[in-house]
Each structure stands twice: as structure tokens, then as C-alpha cells.
Specification:
About 80% of the residues lie in helices and about 0% in strands. By secondary structure, the protein is mainly α. The longest helix has about 30 residues.
């Protein structure tokens, strides 16, 4: 079986979608932190949001790489 050729046509759109979803998850976690009194849960949500922020930074960098390929 031959490997599939590298098709980058939708990478830009997929990355944008993933960034949007991560931002929505950050907001949901912040909303959950506001209504919970469980300190362990708050720390867990904060840690997840930190990882999401790092992922968003990486995806934005990758988005820059894809701009040239989108054209």
C-alpha cells in the first residue's frame, strides 16, 4: 500500500477550528471554576487551562506555517 500524499489543503481551517474549540473549553472551565467550591477541582481546571493556553500558542505558530501553503 502506498502512503497518502501530503494534502495540506484543509490544515489551516482545521487548526483554526482547534484553536476555537480550545478557547471555548477554557471559557467553560472558567465558568465551572466560578461555580464550584471544590478547591481540588479548581486546581485541576487551572492546570488544564494552562495546558490549553500552551497548545493554543503552538497552534498559532503552526497556523503561521500553514499560511504559505493555503494559497
Amino acid at each position: 500500500m502506498w502512503p497518502k500524499p501530503d494534502n495540506r489543503d484543509d490544515n489551516y481551517d482545521n487548526i483554526q477550528h482547534n484553536i476555537k474549540m480550545a478557547q471555548e473549553n477554557i471559557q467553560r472551565a472558567n465558568d465551572m471554576k466560578a461555580i464550584t467550591s471544590d478547591e481540588k477541582m479548581k486546581r485541576t481546571l487551572e492546570a488544564k487551562n494552562e495546558r490549553r493556553e500552551e497548545a493554543i500558542k503552538s497552534m498559532r505558530h503552526e497556523l503561521g506555517d500553514e499560511i504559505g501553503h493555503k494559497r
